[in-house]
Amino acid sequence: EADIYQTPRYLVIGTGKKITLECSQTMGHDKMYWYQQDPGMELHLIHYSYGVNSTEKGDLSSESTVSRIRTEHFPLTLESARPSHTSQYLCASSEASGKRTYNEQFFGPGTRLTVL
Amino acid sequence: DQQVKQNSPSLSVQEGRISILNCDYTNSMFDYFLWYKKYPAEGPTFLISISSIKDKNEDGRFTVFLNKSAKHLSLHIVPSQPGDSAVYFCAAYNFNKFYFGSGTKLNVKP
User: Fold this and answer.
1) Residue B79: is the preceding peptide bond cis (ω within 30°)?
2) Contacts with B40 (C-beta within 8 Å, 6 or more apart), sequence order
3) CB contacts, 8 Å: A100 with chain B
4) Quick one: which of A21, A60, A83, B103 has the most CB atoms within 10 Å?
């Protein structure tokens, strides 16, 4: 069973606020990911990490930032939330793999963010 | 530029019958293709995958077929059960990244 957690599950916040979405996993996975998904749309990769002190931007441009100070923790921060940031944010993790092989991704339950 | 497409947003099937979910892709360099299942208020969970060098992979009631010449894959669920009702995402993998489709919502009617 996957042990990956996201908090908060739901967040409604006003424009201009700084927010941090938390993601933690207890599986010791090196690779972690953040996806953004709007209803009825595909998951878009916005950030990923190969391990501690490694972060990369994904294919979808995002105004958010991430950090990876500990293996188990991969928080996502929005310095100044805007209504365009309203979306669902999904965190995932997997064991390290080669570039052409994969290991199963385990997803957290997601954070539904609404910016008023 | 969407590299993985699921053109059917929803599908309704009678219990016991076959469910066929379709997915198209544009990048011939993908190494693996995967299907995920997602229930409301939960994250996606891995269901089944197939390597790009194969054309079929079966796991119980779930079979994935890959047609590389058509850049098309499909997921067959036989027999369909009400508990299979969920959103199914197709995904493709290469070079450390996963690319997802927009999902198909499957409703299996009792």
Assistant:
1) yes
2) none
3) 31, 94-95
4) B103
